[in-house]
Amino acid sequence: MNGLALQDRPSASASWRIALPHSAAAVPVARALVRTALAELEHGADCDTAELLTAELVANAVEHTTGEAPIELVVELLPTGCQVEVHDPDPAPPGDLTRPPEREPDPWQEHGRGLLLIRALSSSCGHRATESGKAVWFTLPAVPPQWRPS
């Protein structure tokens, strides 16, 4: 049988909602939380990609929003994959998350590639308004065990 057998899929879903400080210190904490969640449940989503994209979302929320309100990380693990959301207090949508930028990022600049990475490496991404601002999210599919690196 090709593909993912039913018994190979994670049997239960799990979710976490964690408040993070509105500072650069939130980025490594968010990375560690996502990696730990995926590893402890032996979930099939790619840990490295999930960690990288989570760091990009959290870093963007810290850099592009003001105030002291915490940033919220929401991680949902499902049999079909994982979804990560980052909630922040700014209702303005993120720049070019769901559409290609009008011009390519400058290769000599330190910034400008985060949303490009999220679009390129996730199976889907987007944003939505919330009561207190917005949530920016991405999803990654579960990877069958035979396709995972050893």
What is the gist of this entry?
This protein has 150 residues and is an alpha+beta fold.
Report on the structure:
By secondary structure, the chain is of the alpha+beta class. The protein has three helices and five strands, in the order βααββαββ. It has a five-stranded antiparallel β-sheet. A hairpin with a 2-residue loop joins β4 and β5. It is globular and about 40 Å long. The two termini are 21 Å apart.
Structural class: alpha+beta
Low-confidence stretches: 1-11
The total beta strand count reads: 5
Task: Output mean pLDDT.
Answer: 81
Q: How would a textbook summarize the main sheet?
A: 5 strands, antiparallel
Strand order of the largest sheet: 1-2-3-5-4
- Global geometry: globular
Helix content: 25-40%
Roughly what fraction of the amino acids lie in strands? 25-35%
What's the helix-strand series? Answer: EHHEEHEE
Task: Give keywords.
single chain; 150 residues; alpha+beta; five-stranded antiparallel sheet; 5 strands; 27% helix; 26% strand; globular; disordered N terminus
